[in-house]
């Protein structure tokens, strides 16, 4: 430990009101290394990255660059201090050509060209508009632009996610070459394969704290997963299991074959039976958003088929999916609610959607169905005149109650318990199990892995736009799901059985 | 100790008043209307009599009807700037066709351009997603252009206002304006439609959160097409009524009602951003604007000063009203 770290951050914390996004994070990056930054969803990775690149200010902590405290008050200041990020989304302005984009950011053109060539794009025309270039090339250009600024520390956020294999290899080569000159790279990725190929060490975050720093050696994956999970591997009660797999006869309620959509969903196939709650587990941005949007009729898949009750269907509008009894509850409540309207109007909204129900409202019938749904979900209706006056949990209940009242046969729930209180969460789990017992089916994406065993009958794990594993609920604990979500094979997981939850 | 004492009280008076206003948004508007009438009576004692009221109502009705178009479109986050053109076209066609045709056929022909403009607006906004402001402004200009061409072709044949329309527009029966025969059913239709039909619900839903409406299966373009056609038809019928009131067709007949129709809806508490409001408030808003116009005319100010005052008062009233009613 004689070399002074290039970047030395310690005790970094960030509070949003009473919520701590980051409690005590530290990150030491030596000159000449590629350093992986890892952590489960919500561990604080992106908050730390934003702090290091000057996008937000930390509430506490000390950040030294080459042993000096440098101001990181803005992205420009961070760049002057030698920290340059390459974000997940392309950062070139689509309506300008490449030359203008470079001019705008003060990027030297000659080194940029050299880097682009070195990264495996030989024939770039600087007069091309950014919008006309494919995503993979844009990512390469972002990287080349960062490289030509000669940063001390480069942050690569999911750099290789959108790249085809040959480009990804070139990127890894270039990054390896770059650190030989004494610079360093912070590499954020969900792919262990790449981390093993590229990185020297890894810092692992959990619940806003740095829980360990490890050298990347063969077989370290298990240790990293263990650290990301920490002592939370306690067993949750398996809620489901009661369901008899043989009970449902006839064609599956929903059958998805080779579905692809957008740039992230590659090839997903699965079946959803009547009376089943199937969990979908994936890290951020693995195509789950596109999967749900396609099943809900919000976007058109580019490939693959969807069949409902054995009949192939094509959804051009959410109305088509609803006509088949498929309802979508988005994760973001503001996407689903009429905030200025009453609870009743919100719940009754699907009733009026079809042309033939544009006439006078069936007030009595509507009141009956709405109050039954309110009762069933125990929605607190004291502030029912405007949904925006309700608490978050009650708002979420309204988005579900709508489809209970409309008697949808299949509900697609996208992270419905995010940011709501424990009691409401429990009520939602119970409700979904009740629905399944009545023969309805639920597709349930969750970012809180422990929910899978509370609610689901099995877990479909999606990684890189594909189904990588389907776990029966009995073994779908947090550890197994995390391994699967990172694309690790199931067998390796069961070998080193060390549930001791060792602390680093 | 004093702190705990205040905590025991249900809520501060100001807060309670706001709650009440928020639940009964019509009350402050009616109070304002009464105050304006009071000021008028104070300035010119004896002016407020049966004849004055009938006259005010008569002039408020066309404004309120065009404001119905604004209310409905504003609920979806839109606006209909073509209403004055549509009304003028209907009136002009009516007057020109009545020379040769019976009133019913002439009326049917007169409403044809309204229908066409409504369909064009609906398709432009609903299908091609042109901003309503631009779309309706565009169709309005096209409409005026067509009307100028049409005027040249019929300039020789002259114009005639059917007696029925004059009776409806200007006539009184027992001191009550005949125009109410048209207005009461229209107003009842709009209010009931907004409150008690699926279509009305969808207008609020689309304006509040189009994405949420879509996820609930609402097909935006259908709602918008139906809305702009309905808006244009009401504007066309208003044009016929207004012809009966003014009795001289011109190329700018209904123009003076255009911006006040937007103002009436806004004063009446309909949010220009969509999702909030209703027609009852708009009707009171139209009455307020009509009384305000009388009041300013009475002060015998020069035209410029009158306009300045009118604009300033509209702004003040709207701002104050939103503060009063918005309980958040």
Give an overview of the whole structure.
The complex is a heterodimer of chains A (504) and B (328). In chain A, 47% of the residues are buried. Chain A has helices at 45-52, 75-80, 98-104, 109-118, 135-148, 165-180, 192-198, 220-229, 288-295, 318-323, 343-352, 363-377, 392-405, 422-437, 451-455, 478-485, 490-494, and strands at 7-16, 19-29, 34-39, 60-65, 68-69, 83-86, 153-157, 184-188, 201-206, 209-215, 254-261, 265-272, 277-281, 303-308, 311-313, 326-329, 410-414, 441-445, 458-463, 466-472. In chain A, the strands form four sheets. Chain A has a six-stranded mixed sheet with strand order 6-7-8-3-9-10, sandwiched between helices. Chain A has a six-stranded mixed sheet with strand order 16-17-18-13-19-20, with helices on both faces. In chain A, strands 2-1-4-5 form a four-stranded antiparallel sheet, with helices on one face. Helices cover 33% and strands 24% of the residues of chain A. By secondary structure, chain A is an alpha/beta fold. Chain A is globular, with a radius of gyration of 25 Å. In chain A, helix 11 (343-352) crosses helix 12 (363-377) and helix 11 (343-352) runs parallel beside helix 13 (392-405). Helices cover 76% and strands 1% of the residues of chain B. Chain B is built from 15 helices and two strands. Chain B has helices at residues 2-8, 13-23, 26-43, 50-75, 83-97, 103-126, 132-154, 163-170, 180-196, 198-208, 210-215, 220-246, 255-267, 279-298, 303-325, and strands at residues 172-173, 176-177. The two termini of chain B are 29 Å apart. Residues 1-8 of chain B have low confidence and may be disordered. The A-B interface holds A 296, 298, 317-319, 322-323, 328, 330, 334-341, 345, 348-355, 357-361, 363, 385, 402 and B 23, 196-199, 201-202, 204-205, 208-209, 211-219, 222, 226, 275-276.
């Amino acid at each position: 430990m004689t070399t002074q770290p290039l970047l030395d951050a310690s005790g970094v914390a960030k509070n949003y009101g009473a919520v701590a996004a980051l409690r005590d994070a530290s990150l030491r990056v030596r000159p000449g290394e590629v350093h992986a930054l890892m952590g489960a969803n919500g561990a604080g990775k992106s908050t730390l990255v934003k702090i290091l690149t000057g996008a937000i200010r930390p509430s506490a902590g000390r950040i030294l660059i080459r042993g000096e405290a440098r101001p990181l008050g803005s992205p420009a200041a961070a760049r002057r201090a030698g920290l340059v990020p390459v974000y997940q989304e392309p950062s070139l302005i689509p309506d300008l050509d490449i030359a203008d984009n470079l001019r705008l950011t003060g990027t030297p053109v000659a080194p940029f060209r050299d880097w682009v060539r070195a990264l495996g794009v030989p024939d770039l025309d600087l007069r091309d508009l950014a919008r006309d270039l494919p995503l993979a090339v844009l990512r390469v250009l972002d990287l080349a632009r960062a490289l030509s600024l000669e940063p001390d520390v480069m942050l690569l956020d999911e750099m290789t996610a959108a790249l085809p294999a040959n480009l990804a290899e070139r990127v890894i080569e270039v990054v390896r070459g770059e650190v030989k000159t004494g610079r360093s790279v912070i590499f954020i990725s969900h792919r262990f394969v790449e981390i093993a190929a590229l990185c020297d060490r890894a810092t692992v975050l959990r619940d806003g704290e740095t829980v360990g720093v490890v050298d990347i050696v063969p077989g370290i994956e298990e240790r990293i997963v263990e650290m990301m999970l920490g002592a939370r591997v306690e067993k949750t009660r398996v809620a489901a299991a009661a369901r008899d797999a043989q009970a449902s006869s006839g064609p599956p309620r929903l059958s998805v074959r080779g579905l692809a959509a957008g740039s992230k969903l590659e090839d997903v196939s699965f079946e959803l039976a009547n009376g089943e709650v199937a969990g979908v587990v994936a890290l951020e941005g693995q195509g789950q958003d596109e999967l749900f949007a396609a099943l809900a009729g919000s976007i058109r898949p580019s490939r693959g088929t969807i069949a409902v009750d054995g009949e192939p269907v094509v959804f051009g509008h959410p109305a088509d999916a609803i006509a088949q009894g498929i309802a979508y509850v988005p994760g973001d409540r503001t996407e689903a609610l009429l905030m200025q309207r009453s609870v009743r109007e919100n719940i009754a909204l699907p009733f009026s959607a079809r042309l033939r129900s544009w006439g006078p409202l069936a007030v009595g019938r509507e009141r009956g169905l709405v109050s039954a749904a309110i009762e069933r979900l125990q929605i607190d209706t004291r502030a029912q005149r405007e949904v925006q006056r309700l608490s978050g949990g009650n708002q979420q209940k309204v988005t579900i109650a709508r489809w209970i009242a409309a008697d949808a046969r299949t509900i697609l729930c996208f992270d419905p318990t995010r940011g709501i209180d424990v009691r409401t969460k429990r009520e939602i789990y119970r409700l979904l199990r009740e629905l399944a017992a009545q023969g309805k089916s639920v597709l349930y994406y969750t970012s809180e892995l422990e929910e899978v065993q509370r609610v689901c009958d099995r877990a479909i794990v999606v990684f890189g736009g594909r189904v990588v594993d389907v776990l029966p609920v009995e073994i779908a604990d947090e550890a197994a799901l995390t391994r699967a979500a990172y694309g690790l094979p199931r067998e390796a997981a069961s070998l080193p059985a060390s549930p001791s939850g060792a602390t680093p | 100790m004093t702190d705990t004492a205040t905590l025991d009280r249900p809520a501060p008076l100001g807060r309670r008043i706001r709650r009440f206003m928020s639940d009964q948004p019509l009350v402050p508007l009616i109070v304002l209307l009464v105050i304006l009438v009071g000021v008028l009576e104070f300035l010119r004692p004896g002016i407020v009599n049966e004849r004055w009221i009938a006259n005010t109502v008569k002039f408020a009705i066309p404004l309120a009807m065009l404001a119905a178009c604004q209310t409905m479109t504003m609920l979806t986050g839109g606006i209909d700037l073509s209403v004055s053109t549509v009304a003028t076209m209907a009136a002009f066609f009516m007057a020109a066709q009545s020379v040769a045709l019976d009133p019913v056929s002439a009326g049917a022909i007169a409403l044809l351009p309204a229908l066409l403009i409504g369909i064009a607006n609906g398709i432009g906004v609903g299908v091609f997603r042109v901003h309503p402001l631009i779309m309706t402004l565009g169709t309005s200009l096209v409409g005026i252009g067509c009307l100028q061409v049409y005027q040249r072709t019929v300039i020789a044949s002259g114009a005639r206002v059917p007696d029925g329309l004059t009776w409806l527009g200007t006539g009184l029966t027992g001191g009550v304006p005949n125009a109410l025969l048209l207005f009461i059913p229209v107003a009842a239709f709009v209010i009931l439609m907004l409150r008690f039909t699926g279509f009305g619900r969808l207008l609020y839903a689309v304006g509040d959160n189009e994405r949420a409406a879509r996820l609930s299966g609402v097909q935006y373009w259908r709602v918008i097409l139906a809305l702009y056609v309905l808006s244009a038809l009401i504007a066309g019928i208003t044009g016929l009524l207004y012809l009966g009131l003014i009795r001289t067709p011109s190329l700018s007949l209904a123009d003076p009602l255009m911006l006040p129709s937007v103002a009436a809806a806004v004063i009446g508490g309909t949010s220009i951003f969509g999702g909030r409001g209703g027609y009852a408030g708009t009707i009171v808003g139209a009455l307020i604007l009509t009384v305000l116009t009388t009041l300013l005319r009475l002060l015998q100010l020069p035209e410029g000063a009158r306009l300045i005052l009118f604009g300033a008062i509209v702004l003040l009233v709207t701002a104050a009203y939103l503060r009063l009613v918005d309980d958040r």
